[in-house]
Write a structure and sequence with these properties.
Blueprint lengths: L1 H16 L16 H5 L6 E3 L20 E6 L4 E5 L5 E6 L4 E6 L3 E3 L5 E5 L26 E5 L4 E6 L4 E6 L6 E5 L3 E6 L3 E2 L2 E2 L3 E5 L4 H8 L18
Antiparallel strand pairs: 1-15, 2-3, 2-7, 3-4, 5-6, 5-8, 8-9, 9-10, 11-12, 12-15, 13-14
Length: 237
């Protein structure tokens, strides 16, 4: 028995010395979807019901400098961000099918759009401190962002293609939501509702500084990946 024990010990030590494969780590127990694990509830504030106005028009966008990024919505419900060479920079699934979508600081996009051109460099990509915090209209600092409402979860997906970052924001209990981008705050509305024989629309308000934690994360550039393997399903290394 002692001899057998010594032989077994010697084999194990030799395998360790020659770099035998280590035991694979146990799989993660967190089976939640990305938007379930990462979503945050911003400080939404209930606002008085109607009548509702419209925000002032957005200033005309500054033409993007340099080459643009391309956002593509695939039939499987995923969103892909590619650079001008066609290299995949980000791929995410969405909680549901796109119901409403805006870019920048409130320019509505047709939900059926399959491709959008977006700037590769934005004010936010230079750091959250570069945003126009002291200005009367905060919206121009939101250039290059995508704001997506879907028909599934009560979640607002915010994508910053320039840094390949995503944030998921939980919404209050609202049906048929829409976003209204005001110079000093973001408003969430119910587009329709019937109670007691009259039309009512609930709404919530979120001052732009209330999104500071999410904007800080969106400003951080993603780690550089291995370019050139985006369309290679099984890279060799």
């Amino acid at each position: 028995m002692r001899l057998g024990s010594r032989v077994l010990t010697g084999v194990l030590l030799a395998a360790a010395a020659f770099g035998a494969p280590a035991q694979a780590p146990a799989p993660s127990r967190d089976k939640r979807l990305p938007w379930e694990a990462a979503q945050a509830m911003p400080p939404w504030q209930a606002a008085p019901e109607g009548p509702f106005g419209a925000p002032p028009p957005l200033p005309e966008p500054v033409p993007p400098a340099g080459r643009a990024l391309h956002a593509r919505f695939e039939p499987d419900g995923s969103l892909r961000i590619l650079d001008h060479r066609g290299v995949l920079r980000l791929k995410i699934g969405l909680p549901g099918r796109v119901a409403r979508m805006w870019k920048d600081g409130g320019r509505e996009v047709e939900p059926g759009a399959s491709r959008l051109d977006l700037p590769a460099s934005t004010t936010l990509s230079k750091g959250a401190s570069e945003l126009p915090w002291g200005m009367a209209d905060f919206r121009p600092g939101l250039e290059g962002l995508l704001w997506i409402l879907d028909d599934g979860e009560r979640i607002l997906t915010v994508v910053h293609p320039a840094t390949a970052r995503v944030q998921y924001l939980a919404l209050p209990p609202v049906s048929d939501p829409e976003l209204v981008f005001w110079p000093d705050h973001l408003e969430l509305r119910e587009r329709a509702g019937i109670e007691a024989g009259r039309q009512r629309q609930r709404r919530w308000s979120l001052p732009w500084p209330g999104l500071l934690p999410q904007l800080l994360r969106l400003a951080q550039p993603a780690k550089e990946g291995r370019h050139g393997t985006a369309f290679q399903p099984f890279p060799k290394d």
